[in-house]
């Protein structure tokens, strides 16, 4: 399998995560220090210092949450794109995984010999229940405390369907309607955390943990089976994905 990852994007987001976390803690510590000062001041200054101390709490908290969000996705090891690469590494060279490429409408996109697969990633742990297009998450107390830093689960099915439409629009703009119509675009919702537990019933979009991703993106069997993309169409799609701004 070929892998193309925008390392500059990854480094930038990782640095933003670290910087935001440091600034957030600086705000909280500054507010804490200020909150100790009013008793040492004149009464006329006490209320001002208290207001300033409280004013640092919200931005500090938001910065820490933003930093945590970025760190989970781009600062930790292994990163999301590294987990996807590991899960798909034995596929042949006709499979191309593109991560965070400038100009593409999705973060993680897989070109296969039969079309494109949007990888709708969720890096969360816990228990997740999918029935049709509906999602529910069971949370322990610790997981509720992490909700803002981790990010919202949202509705992975709807996000995947929206991103499939965005990729189709991208192909139409780059290759024209006739060629774009020859390229199937599908999606798989992927949970990359090893402690994610999935209960899935009649999903509108396939759902899989990372360890089961490879069978989900291989050639469909049975009534869903289809032929490979024509060679010229495959090459044009690959070129468009690798040079989306061209």
Element pattern in H and E: EHHHHEEEEEHHHHEEEHH
Describe the strand arrangement of the main beta sheet, using strand numbers.
Answer: 1-2-3-4-7-9
Number of domains: 2
DSSP strand content: 15-25%
Average pLDDT confidence is 84
Radius of gyration, CA atoms, in whole angstroms:
23 Å
The poorly predicted ranges are: none
Task: Specify the overall morphology.
Answer: elongated
Percent range of helical residues: 40-55%
What distance separates the N and C termini?
A: 24 Å
| Main pleated sheet | 6 strands, mixed
Number of helices: 10
Question: Strand pairing plus helix content: what structural class?
Answer: alpha/beta
Strand count = 9
Could you characterize the architecture of this molecule?
The protein has 246 residues and is an alpha/beta fold. It has 2 domains: 7-75; 78-242, no CATH class. The protein contains 10 helices and 9 strands. The protein has helices at 7-35, 43-55, 57-75, 80-88, 141-145, 147-150, 156-175, 177-180, 213-217, 231-242, and strands spanning 2-5, 96-99, 108-112, 115-122, 126-131, 134-138, 185-191, 196-201, 207-209. The strands form 2 sheets. Strands 1-2-3-4-7-9 form a 6-stranded mixed sheet, with helices on both faces. Strand 3 and strand 4 form a beta hairpin. Helix 1 packs antiparallel against helix 2 and helix 1 runs antiparallel to helix 3 (57-75).
């Amino acid at each position: 399998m070929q892998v193309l990852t925008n390392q500059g994007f990854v480094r930038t987001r990782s640095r933003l995560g670290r910087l935001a976390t440091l600034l957030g803690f600086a705000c909280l510590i500054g507010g804490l220090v200020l909150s100790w000062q009013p008793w040492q001041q004149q009464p006329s200054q006490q209320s001002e210092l208290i207001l300033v101390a409280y004013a640092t709490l919200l931005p500090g908290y938001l910065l820490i949450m933003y930093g945590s969000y970025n760190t989970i996705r781009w600062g930790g090891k292994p990163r999301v794109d590294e987990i996807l690469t590991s899960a798909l590494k034995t596929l042949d060279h006709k499979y191309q995984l593109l991560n965070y490429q400038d100009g593409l409408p999705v973060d993680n996109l897989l070109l296969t010999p039969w079309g494109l697969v949007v990888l709708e990633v969720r890096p969360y742990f816990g228990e997740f229940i999918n029935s049709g297009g509906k999602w529910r998450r069971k949370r322990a107390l610790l997981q509720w405390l992490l909700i803002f830093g981790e990010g919202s689960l949202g509705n992975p099915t709807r996000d995947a369907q929206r991103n499939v439409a965005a990729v189709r629009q991208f192909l139409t703009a780059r290759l024209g309607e006739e060629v774009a119509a020859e390229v199937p675009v599908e999606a798989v919702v992927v949970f990359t955390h090893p402690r994610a537990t999935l209960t899935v019933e009649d999903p509108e979009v396939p759902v899989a943990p990372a360890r089961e991703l490879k069978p989900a993106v291989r050639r469909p069997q049975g009534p869903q089976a289809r032929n490979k993309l024509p060679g010229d169409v495959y090459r044009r799609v690959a070129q468009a994905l690798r040079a989306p701004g061209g």
